[in-house]
Each structure stands twice: as C-alpha cells, then as structure tokens.
Design brief:
Length: 315
C-alpha cells in the first residue's frame, strides 16, 4: 500500500499501553513478579521438553504433543511479558503501530495453535483408551507430524486473517490501550471506523477454533469415560483417569478464560477484569501447565529428576 494513502487513512502511528498499574511503586512490584513468573514458566516448560527428549519412556505420541504444548507456552509468554518488562524498565508505554500488529499476530497464532493441539491431545487419548489395538498404526509418527503441521497451518491462517482485517480499520483518535499487550477487543474500541466485519470474523473464528474443538474434546472424553468405567481393575481405571485428568484441567483453564475474554465484545470499556483474564491467559496458564502435567505423573517426575541431576535413564 502507498505510504501516503496509509497515512491519510490512519493517523495513529503508535499506541499507548496503559499496563497493569499506574503508580511507580506498584510498577516495581509488577516487574519483579512478572520477571519471576517468566523465568519460572520458561524454565519449567523447557525442563518438560528436555525430559521428553532425553527419556526413552516418554517417546510416545502423548508426550510428543505435550512437548509441542510446552513450546507454545514458552512462545505465548515470550510474546507478551518481555516487552511489558522492557516498558516498565524504560518508563515508556508507547508501542509502534507495526509492533502492536506483530504482537497481535503471534499471540493469535500461538493461541489458535493451542486450540487445535488440545483437540489433537484429546483425540490421542481417545485412540489410546478406546481403540488400543489400532493405536500404534493410527497414531504413527507420520500422523503425529501431520496433525501438528495442520494445527500450525490453521493457527497461522487465523492469525493472518485477524491481522489483515485489523489493518483495514482506521485509527484516527484516542490511542490509549487499557491493557498490557495488544489484542483485538481493546483495539476495536479505538477504531474510528466500523468494526462490525471484524467482530463477525472474530465470532466465526471463535466458532471454528473454539466451539468446534471444544465439542470434539467433549465427545472424545465422553467415549473415554465410558471405556474407562468398563475397566474392571481399580488400578487400571485410576491410571486411565490420571492420564486424562491433567489434560482436562488444562482444557478447562484455557477455554474458560478464553471464552470470558472474547465473548464480551459488547462491553464499551475495557476493565480490570480484562487485564486479569489476560494475565491468566499469557502468564498463569503457561506457568501452571508443567506443574499440572508432572504433579501426578511419575514418569515425567522421574525424567525431570534425571534431567536436573544429570543422570541417564536406567531404561
């Protein structure tokens, strides 16, 4: 697009991210807390990834997908938190227009990938528990790679569509974003042109990327529940439910906060609730996932211990 046409259509060249708090004393506290959360999240997820790579017991489809989820968690918190920490250090809250759109693109790429990967993980549990005789052939390494590649492609398409659609809006008035990162609901409120088509696109994308996967996850686990209840061994039922319980917990956290965030486009003003949900989506969820998946999993705990103390697996 011609730069002159672009300048005439959009006068805003940067946005002001208001952040989480206003006072300087609280900003120091926020910096320390979020820096600690970032280091813990990156360290925890990279530890999970290292354990999966070095431990032969974990070279299975379930842990292959879990490793990809760990990469997504590191990416999600890296897209939002380091830039916020840099603004707190520099006391500059402005973000260039292009940088804001770039952040939004990568955030929705990773969030969209998360939706599909959680669905793939539910499908993996369905095959492993309900159809164990054909599991190894139906969830081969080739199939695993194809499922992950398709998830990345769908996430990329979703993020690109939203970014291009947002780039067609006019921003010619207020440029203060009441959040600590750039996201669609807050930017819609600053546009001086109609956002009806953008909101319709977000609604359709939500149906395709949130509702449909959630339905598939629910159906998969309904079949899993029926199959597990048929297992006569109490220990067998406990083990089956424990492998699914971690994934279900992550699904509930991810979709619960996501639905709250993107189904409130009718509200006129951003609130502290939006910031709280944003913190949950970008910081707390990625930080909790390694704990959730390792808390009741002796295989992961053993692999993590061997990674941390530098001992090789005995198997």
């Amino acid at each position: 697009m011609d730069p002159e046409v672009r300048a005439n259509r959009t006068s805003v060249t940067e946005f002001i991210l208001l952040g989480l708090v206003e006072t300087e004393q609280l900003q120091s506290v926020v910096f320390v807390v979020f820096l600690f959360a970032y280091l813990v999240t990156v360290g925890g997820n990279l530890s999970i990834l290292a354990a999966i790579l070095v431990e032969p017991k974990l070279h299975t489809p379930m842990y292959f997908f879990l490793g990809n989820l760990s990469v997504l968690d590191v990416g999600c918190i890296t897209v939002t938190v380091p830039s916020m920490l840099a603004r707190l250090l520099s006391h500059r809250r402005t973000v260039p227009y292009g940088a804001c759109l770039t952040q939004l693109f990568f955030f929705h790429l990773l969030a969209g990938m998360d939706c599909f990967l959680l669905t793939v993980m539910a499908y993996d549990r369905f095959l492993a528990i309900c159809q164990p005789l054909t599991y190894s052939t139906r969830m081969s390494q080739t199939v695993q790679r194809i499922l992950v590649a398709v998830s990345w492609a769908l996430g990329f398409t979703n993020a690109l569509n939203h970014t291009i659609a947002l780039n067609t809006l006019n921003f010619c008035g207020p440029n203060a974003v009441n959040h600590f990162y750039c996201d669609l609901p807050q930017l819609f409120q600053l546009s001086c042109s109609s956002t009806q088509l953008n909101e319709l696109l977000l609604f359709v994308a939500a149906a395709f990327m949130a509702v449909a996967p959630l339905v598939l996850i629910t159906v998969s686990y309904a079949h899993v529940a029926v199959a597990v209840l048929r297992i006569r061994s109490v220990e067998g039922r406990r083990k089956a439910f424990s492998t699914c319980g971690s994934h279900l917990t992550v699904v509930c956290l991810f979709y619960g906060t996501g639905i709250f965030n993107y189904m409130r486009l009718g509200s006129e003003e951003s609130s502290d609730k939006d910031k709280g949900v944003g913190v949950f989506n970008t910081v707390i969820n990625p930080m909790l996932n390694p704990l959730i998946y390792s808390l009741r999993n002796p295989d992961v705990q053993g692999a993590l211990w061997r990674v941390l103390v530098g001992r090789q697996s005995l198997t």
